Amino acid sequence: MPRAKLPRKSTNIDMTAMCDVAFLLLSFFILATKTKPPEVLAVEPPTSVSSKAAPENSILITMTRDSRVFLMLGEGVKKEEIIQKLNANRNLQFTPQEMAKMVKAEFYGLPLTKYKSYISSGKEIPAAKMEGIPVMDSSNNELVHWVKAISDAYAGTDQRKLQQMLLVKGDGAAFYPVFKNVKQAFKKNELYKFRIVTSGEPVPAGSELFMSGKNS
Known about the structure:
The protein is an alpha/beta fold. The protein has eight helices and six strands.
């Protein structure tokens, strides 16, 4: 008895659901991924064997090789409160519009007296052309006022957590008096601990740290 011939049918796979899932995953990763915050200027910090990563909610002070100092307030920092405290402490008389522009700034690197004219000009000044926060004159160390505003904004909170957020990144060729006055800004505001950002390097073979890690 001959076998019945079954008609052959082409196989159709509906990819709509799979494409939807792929685009949903792509959207999730794009929105959830945190990009590295921009740096004010490229500096070459000294090296160390420390492997601790800098926190995302950091307050970064950058010292360039030409003795300029910049301040960056990272994600999660009480940026608006810091600017409000600075405005009140120094009587800068920022308008609400000027306050909003100050809060939106990625970094700060001008004398306080020049910010109103800078904001009113509406022109963006690149970091390379900013003169930096004045710190070289110990009698007019404006970083002291910035750190005071930071300290005031975090008053009543765990100061140990604040100190973990304080980072100092300096070029290896920066002059020591700049670093000394940066430390003085912390000291005058009773902040005695901060972290120094360095470039990582391998632990020297045969050193005590190398041997302790090898035996652990």
